[in-house]
Each structure stands twice: as C-alpha cells, then as structure tokens.
Design a protein that fits this description.
By secondary structure, the chain is an alpha+beta fold. It has one domain. The chain is about 45% helix and about 25% strand. It has four helices and ten strands. Strands 5, 6, 7, 8, 9 and 10 form a six-stranded antiparallel sheet that branches. Strands 1-2 form a two-stranded antiparallel ribbon. The longest helix has 29 residues. The protein is elongated.
Length: about 170
C-alpha cells in the first residue's frame, strides 16, 4: 500500500472511532435521568391538563350557566351568591360547588375508574396563599405505579398580585 492510502485508512478508523464513542455517549445520556417521560406518562399528563382546562370552563346550569372559573372569580371579587332555578333562590356559590359539583365530577372521572386524585383550588391574594377554596382527594393513600401532576392552571384576577390556582395530581396503575 502506498503512503497516501495508509493515511486515508487511518483517518477512516479515527472517524469511525469518534462516531462510535459519540453514539455510546449519546445513548447513555438519553437513557439516564428520572426526568424522561414515556408516551403513557405524557398522555396521562396531557389528560390531566385537559381535565383541568375542561373543568374550569364547565358551565353550571344551576348557577345561571356561569363557568366554574367565573363562579370562583366572582366569589373572590365579592359576589358569593349563586342564583339557582327557578332563579329566585340564592345559595352560597362556594358551598354549592363543594356539595353539588366537585364531588360528583371527581368521583365520576377518577374514583369510579379506580384512579386516585388530589385536587385543590387555591386563592393567592397579594402574593400570599390563602387556605384552599376547595381541596379533595380520593384513594390517594394507596400505592399506584404511575403518579402524574397536571400543570397548575392559573386564573389571573383584576389585581395582578391576586390569582386562582387549580392543581391536580393523579395516580394510576
């Protein structure tokens, strides 16, 4: 073999060696870490986020067809009453949601299907978190193989330091 051909063969071996080392490093890097998600984990988080997005926009017929978001926002802005059919009776909107809306929805979506959940609605006033507007959990003390947290949904108020935060954590097998 001529000297030029020998140098080219050597260069090819060096390039292949660098590609192999780079591939091994990339595989190790991609496989390590607890913050990687499988498709089912991402699907679960997306479903939890969609549930929260749908929940906050759900209209409550018994409260003049207002959305849950509007009812809670109105509650913290001073309108704590909800007119119920035949729209001549007024009830406390917080109590109505606590007693008649959230337990039914959460049970149907999670508990009846063998899923655990931890759901809360919190109000932050002037940057300080107040006691929860609503908090509930179902079967949350049991062991499950998959735990997913939805991204918190933040509803801004007129005052930029005030906000309503919806949180949801689910557990499934």
């Amino acid at each position: 073999m001529k000297k030029g051909q020998t140098e080219i063969v050597g260069l090819i071996f060096i390039v292949l060696f660098v590609i192999i080392i780079g591939s091994v490093f990339l595989l190790v890097f991609l496989k390590s870490g607890d913050d990687t998600f499988s498709r089912s984990e991402i699907k679960t988080s997306i479903l939890a986020n969609k549930f929260l997005a749908t929940l906050i926009e759900t209209e409550i017929e018994e409260c003049s067809r207002k959305s849950i978001k509007s009812i809670i926002k109105d509650f913290y802005e001073g309108d704590t009453q909800c007119l119920v059919p035949p729209y001549d009776t007024s009830v406390n909107s917080k109590e109505y949601l606590e007693d008649n809306v959230f337990p039914i929805i959460l049970t149907k979506i999670f508990s009846d299907k063998g899923r655990a959940y931890n759901f809360s609605i919190t109000y932050v006033k002037g940057g300080v978190e107040e006691p929860p507007f609503y908090s509930s959990q179902g079967n949350f003390d049991k062991q499950y193989s998959t735990i997913r947290k939805a991204a918190p949904f933040i509803i801004p108020m007129d005052n930029p330091q005030n906000k309503i935060i919806f949180n949801l954590i689910t557990k499934t097998n």
